[in-house]
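Suppose you are handed a protein chain with no further information: no name, no annotation, nothing but its sequence. What can you learn? This example shows the usual starting point.
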Amino acid sequence: MVLDKDKAYHVGNSNRYALGIEQEGFIDDPDKWYTWATYTSSARLTRWMAIKHGIPVDRQHIVGHSELPNQSHTDPGPGWNWNLYMPLITEVVPPSEIRGVTVDRSKPCTLTANVDTPLLRTAMPTDLQPAEDRCPVAAGTPLNYWHARRDIDGHHRLFMPAGEGPCVGAGLDTDAYIVAADWTALCPDEAIAAAGITVTIDGGGPITTNPDGSFAYLWRANGTLDRTPHLILLDLMMPGIDGFEVLRRLRSADATVPVIMLTANDAPEAQLEGLDSGADDYVVKPVNFDVLMARVRAIQRRLGGKVSNLLRFDDLSMDVSAFIAHRGKRHLVLTSREFKLLQEFLEQPERVMSKSYLLDRVWGEDFFGDENVVEVFISQLRQKLEESSEQRLIHTIRNVGYVMRSS
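A reasonable first move is to predict its three-dimensional structure. Written in structure tokens, the prediction is:
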């Protein structure tokens, strides 16, 4: 098992950070080893790792590797389909985001099969899918759909009206893949979208859909950030919504939080658009880490102390720089580890955090002790927070982790 904390050296690769994909095991026929479940589960893990470590989702940073010192083989092997894998990674929605598409059900797009072809349950090659995952469709058959996810290794994923179409009995009437070359062209997303309408989720603030019907909640539903960060490093190239649009929405919700655009796009017009849209700085990758941190410090100095070290939730408050925490008016006497643990919860209220995550954040990657130490410190912290019979703020989510929220 390879752990997140494990390190590797990339020979001949100039990237400071990269993800090396390791698929252990060996079967003579790679098509039987590299299954749909392998691709999709690995894509979710890779997307999570890329987000956690700030690694771009491209082939320069997500790589296979050779076994050293004898270089006996590479992982993944020659049967690995990178053209399928990379789009699956970008399909994964990052944590704390909600994305959707609104459609006008009165005007679905109609495709027509050019040849005899199947509807498929996955985007794997047709001959590798079992018979129950293929529904044959005759040439000339029409097919209505409401929304499409395009270009996944020569396939489109269609979302269709339930209970209609040629594959109702096969369970492929609402969600299926098609071989793009076997059908007439997709409709423009704008032609079937419900554009410009107002969407509200769970009673939150309204958001207006884009011309293609898409929308994204990047923060809380009321349009504000879950917490005000000290500074945001914002990439430009992201799936579904680019960094410019994220920046514009961010500026409409918070005009003061400092933003550095950190991207591989060095085009002058991109730099102009980023700065004109409200970025405080535009940094082109690759960049030396020390230089990047110097730019961060320069922005903080320019703000003249506006970057706050004060964290609050409910009646809890913490001044990080002064190492002071209060519950209401009561001063909390905390050890350095308890202070760091409480800081983690205050910086990310409402987020459920696992023991392994807290170990990594509070104890560091080099800690190799028992993760039950987290339970011990959570118990100690609760005792200090609830010493005067205050309500519990740190809650246990059984078999998942811990979360800070009001009762």
